[in-house]
Amino acid sequence: MTTYPHLRQDFAASLVVFLVALPLCVGVAVASGVPAELGLVTGIVGGIVTGLMRGSSLQVSGPAAGLTVLVFEAVHEFGLPVLGVLVLASGVLQILMGALKLGRWFRAISVSVVEGMLAGIGLVLIAGQLYAMADAKAPASGLGKIAGLPGALADAAGDPAALAAVLLGAGTIAVLVVWKRMPRQVRTVPGPLAAVGLATLAAVAFDLPVATVEVKGLLGAIQPPSLDTFGELASVGVLGTIVAFTLIASAESLFSAAAVDRLHDGPRTEYDKELMAQGAGNAVCGALGALPMTAVIVRSAANVQAGARTKASRVLHGVWLLLFAALLPSVLAYIPIPALAGILVYSGAKLIPVREIVGLWREHRGEALILVVTAVSIVSVSMFEGVLIGLALAVAKTAWEASHLKLEVIDKGAGPVQAYLSGNATFLRLPKILDSLEALPQDRPVELDLSGLHHLDHACRTALENWAERLPHFSTSLEAGGTPTAVGTEPVRVTAS
């Protein structure tokens, strides 16, 4: 015990994380359109491989709801054999970015873009899984999923089997909602496990006509990518999906690490090493043909709250997943798919930051707009394009704010007209600057004060000099910062400091 002083706490925490991760691994796999066992494989690798590496000591990795939509689209478009290539290439990219010390730069990504990304994923995930709850086939597009929901639910109301599936899924969601209000002794069983367990008992006890998980066995589900599938790397669509996997998985993992660091007083996350650990895990998952992994805040928070002290807890949780997959895979065949869909609907709802949107709208409407546009773009276009639109909008907003410029004109009716420029004079605001200056009286002295400028770029400086030179008998040298200068004796005087 002296060698492992926290073994008791870590052992107990690992069991809690295992019980939380088990239904989520299976649910994410089924929702992604791949065998359920592949979700367990990713959870095992996330625990044992990534868990052993340095980075974030208490963060737990595995298949995440945040990538479900993208994985489903990739499997549908390129086929399951290509999934391993996508995940393997993404892992290699993550390792490379970590080695180049790019991990910390993910912290510079606009929080509004990340939250908008998660909100968009949540909306598509909820819509898609509601079809699974209704035992119906979901349309391909995000907008199609949302538009078709009323009809799908109406059809389910007239079909006894579909109605049973809807009620089972709704019951699963209800258990998850009320579980946090249950007595502490009851809550020792994690909510997702309790919800799936109760749904499974109800399906068996009442012999409900609902679909259950198909089981192939762990070895039967693992399909390492063949050499032929690597030829798909020449496809632009495949390369775009790899970039999307890499950016989204990395951003979600590192933002999760920052959130987990706020939950405990232990060692802080080493972001570049954590990115390499995630990359190593994804490379192994890709080699096994499994799902991509990210750090998962639900499991990580459960790990911290259960009293974990070292990374031993997350490694042990991977061991328990491996033992379950090897010894008890037939248990999965009893789990109703509507119950797993209910868990993912609940998880999708938690991805939508309703309170944050309200707060942002009150204080930073531009950030709220970025969040909403990113989410809507993901739903209406696709994951990759939606994130790019959000990033472009965030960059445009930053550029606009960085070029904030104020021109104040004081005209007392006699003496010089005083004009004060303050803020950042960049080419983005050059038309406004020139229009305002050219509108000043041409037959009276003008004093232009640049002392309030924080930045004067080359384009603005040249334009101001040209404006001054067009005035009669005037020459000037403009500088932002330094000694005030006034060159010339004619009606216009320029004061720069």
Please sum up the structure shown:
The chain has 497 residues and is of the alpha/beta class.
Q: What are the defining features of this structure?
A:
about 500 residues; alpha/beta; Transcription Regulator spoIIAA; 2 domains; 4-stranded mixed beta sheet; two-stranded antiparallel sheet; 19 helices; disordered C terminus; SLC26A/SulP_dom; transmembrane helix; SLC26A/SulP_fam; transmembrane
Protein model, in words:
Helices cover 60% and strands 7% of the residues. Helix 1 crosses helix 8 (191-205), helix 5 (111-133) runs antiparallel to helix 14 (337-350) and helix 5 runs antiparallel to helix 17. Strand 5, helix 19 and strand 6 form a beta-alpha-beta unit. The longest helix is centred in the middle third of the chain and has 26 residues, at 236-261. With 497 residues, the protein is α/β, with parallel strands linked by helices. It is built from 19 helices and six strands. The model is unreliable at 473-477 and 480-497 (pLDDT under 50). It folds into two domains: 7-396, no CATH class; 405-495, Transcription Regulator spoIIAA. It has a four-stranded mixed β-sheet with strand order 3-4-5-6, covered by helices on one side. The protein is elongated, with a radius of gyration of 29 Å.
